[in-house]
Amino acid sequence: MSESSPKSILEYGLSSGNVGLVQLLGLCPLLAVSSNAVNALGLGLATALALTITNTLVATIRKITRHDVRIPVFVIVIATVVTAIELAMRAWLPELHAAIGLFVPLIVSNCALMGRAEAYASRNSPARAALDGFAIGLGFLWVLLAIGMIRELLGTGYLFAGAGQLLHLPWLEITVAAGYPGFLLATLPIGAFLVLAGLIALRQWHQLRRNTRQGSNDA
């Protein structure tokens, strides 16, 4: 992807190379934090920010980093950025940090960050690397947010409940079905696997249908 256009970089991160639906990377926090939309949004934004910054930094220092020590350098860069994000979250969003803080340090172990640093950022300009990190992070964010919204809606009948307390955004809180008794399975850990499986199946069905349509047009 070293010669990719900005449009193809965005398409790869959001769709064809999506880390959550296609590469299936970073599933531990993706499944663990997605019990509601607020937690999903918080971790998704933190991951997207980490990907964008680390890609930019790796691309900036790529010409002065020796090839045989690049992996330790990448790890140090990623760990430093994630630590800074966690400290900022602890200082300005303490309630959100209390809810998902356990999973923020795990961003360091997300294979997507190391994978993009090695496969793309270390071989491209800072501008392209920043766009790639943003696209990959945005792709992870929308999948995480979709799972969180579906699980919260099915499980409680609300969307972004607690946004006022955790994110200081009370206008995000939506009551979709007042008096809804809730579907317990959606809020349990198995609910995350079922929703993710459904999204993957839906994407595969759409891809197969599009390929079939293209084949028919070519014929």
> Which assembly state applies to the chains in this document?
single chain
How many distinct helices? 10
How would a crystallographer describe the biggest sheet?
Answer: 2 strands, antiparallel
Question: In order across it, which strands form the biggest sheet?
Answer: 1-2
Strand fraction equals: under 5%
Structural class, from helix and strand content? mainly alpha
In helices, the fraction of residues equals 55-70%
Mean pLDDT rating: 92
Cα end-to-end separation:
30 Å
Give me the strand/helix succession: HHHHHHHEHEHH
Layout of strands and helices, then pairs:
Elements: H1 6-16, H2 27-32, H3 37-61, H4 70-92, H5 94-100, H6 111-119, H7 126-156, E1 158-159, H8 163-166, E2 174-175, H9 184-187, H10 189-218
Antiparallel strand pairs: 1-2
Helix pairs in contact: 1-7, 3-4, 3-6, 3-7, 4-5, 4-6, 6-7, 7-10
Structure write-up:
The protein has 219 residues and is mainly alpha-helical. It has one domain. The chain contains 10 helices and 2 strands; from the N terminus they run αααααααβαβαα. The chain has a two-stranded antiparallel sheet with strand order 1-2. Helix 3 packs parallel to helix 6 and helix 4 packs across helix 5.
Structural key phrases:
219 residues, single chain, 2 strands, mainly alpha, 10 helices, flat, two-stranded antiparallel sheet
Give a brief outline of the structure.
Helices cover 68% and strands 2% of the residues. The protein is an all-alpha fold and 219 residues long.
